[in-house]
From TrEMBL:
InterPro entries: cNMP-bd_dom (IPR000595), cNMP-bd_dom_sf (IPR018490), RmlC-like_jellyroll (IPR014710)
UniProt source species: Mucilaginibacter oryzae
Entry-linked Gene3D superfamilies: Jelly Rolls
Domain (Cyclic nucleotide-binding): residue spans on this chain: 34-110
Name used for this protein in its record: CRP-like cAMP-binding protein
């Protein structure tokens, strides 16, 4: 579960090395479903190369929650932990190289690492970072206009704008593709010309 944090916690490298053989490496095309909404998550996903999207279906309309890139990991955590149906779908947006670690080995890894000094602090730091990210997104949806959300995206996560198709960005921002085009046009007109 923690392979993407191995560089931040090098003192735990023996654990990473031990569980590498249990990961399944896959080279998959774009639009590959890694977890389907309604299925129980049984794998932790690590992205070596490519881009992955987490989304849910809202009456036939996809709503994008998050994008994940190289050296990031993900799963539908409530589904993975509680053996409940996932409320999200996870799919690749680009041809990707991913590793899957079955839940059985994730549980074993967590049991072993939990005995290490500082493990609890490390886990709290990891969860706090994710929580801060999702809290800031929620606050932005309540407080900011779609234009401000797009500007925040340009400033804070420009790689999303560079790599992700526009209709997914619109879904992520909670606007239509037409509205996103208007926002981009308005911002382009407001740029100074030299």
């Amino acid at each position: 579960m923690l392979f993407h944090f191995k560089d931040q916690f090098p003192h735990l490298s023996t654990y990473w090395d031990k569980y590498l053989p249990h990961q399944k490496r896959l080279e998959v095309p774009a639009k590959t479903i890694l977890l389907e909404e309604g299925k129980v998550s049984q794998q932790y996903i690590y992205i070596e190369k490519g881009c992955v999207r987490a989304f849910f279906n809202n009456n036939g309309d996809d709503k994008t929650l998050q994008f994940f890139f190289e050296n990031e990991g993900l799963t539908s955590l409530p589904s993975f932990v509680n053996d409940t149906p996932s409320d999200i779908t996870i799919e690749t947006l680009e041809p990707s190289v991913i590793y899957l670690l079955p839940k059985k080995y994730v549980s074993q890894l967590m049991d072993e690492v939990s005995h290490e000094p500082g493990f609890l602090k490390m886990m709290l730091q990891i969860f706090a970072r994710r929580q801060m990210h999702y809290s800031s997104l929620l606050i932005s949806f309540i407080r900011d206009t779609p234009e401000q959300r797009y500007q925040n995206l340009l400033t804070e996560r420009p790689h999303i704008v560079q790599r992700i198709p526009q209709h997914y960005i619109a879904s992520y921002l909670g606007v239509s593709t037409v509205h996103l085009s208007r926002i981009k046009s308005k911002l382009a007109k407001g740029k100074p010309h030299f």
